[in-house]
Amino acid sequence: MTSRAVVFDLDGTLAVPNRDRRTLLAEAIETTDAPPVSRSEYLDAHGQVVAGETRTPIFERLLTDGDPSPDAVARAYREAVNDALEPVDGVETLLEDLTDGPGYRVGVLTDGPSLAQRSKLDRLGWTERFDATLVTGELETRKPDPAAFEAITDRLGVDPERAIYVGDDPERDVAGAAAAGLDAVQVLHDEGSEPHPDANAVVERDALETGLKTVLASCCQP
């Protein structure tokens, strides 16, 4: 592999909430006095829409007349997630070294509504951290669509085969990046998770900083 750009997934790769998503969803539901919504129901609704700016279209599928407004619940959930979000250990140093050092263009490609994802970057202090940031809600598509990966490499000014994508989801991140012509580094964090056959390398999330630097030093010098 040779690369001139490193592109990251956000959720589950660079940052994680300090409470599980089921709990955060329940907190948002309780805060707004909405009827109970399970995590599986939320994910099912999420999979049926491409939410452009906010999660409101997701909650429109889950709430009925007489319930709190979908916009209010979406806002409460966004605030709960953002309040809980923390960078993975070592990520601040990793990003500083990559973005301040010579040779690499560094980007983020993240799934989700634009406001939700960009507010996470703002909360983390990463709004200006990357050379390019792309939220799939701004594209009306999502990973693993090759168009999403091609869009971020276009913004970074590199050919897909000159880029490496770092993410934790086997299908959306690893298989999606590979199908678009990028090299893929899979981030492992769930017990028993297996490397995807399309992964060019794997790193443990708990050792993302040192693990990715080792991968880049061995195969992907700019």
TrEMBL record:
This is HAD superfamily hydrolase. Keywords: Hydrolase, Magnesium, Metal-binding. Belongs to the HAD-like hydrolase superfamily. The keyword ATP-binding does not apply. It comes from the Archaea. It holds the Pfam family Hydrolase. GO terms for molecular function: metal ion binding; phosphatase activity. It comes from Halapricum desulfuricans. Coiled coil: none annotated. Its cofactor is Mg(2+). GO terms for biological process: small molecule metabolic process.
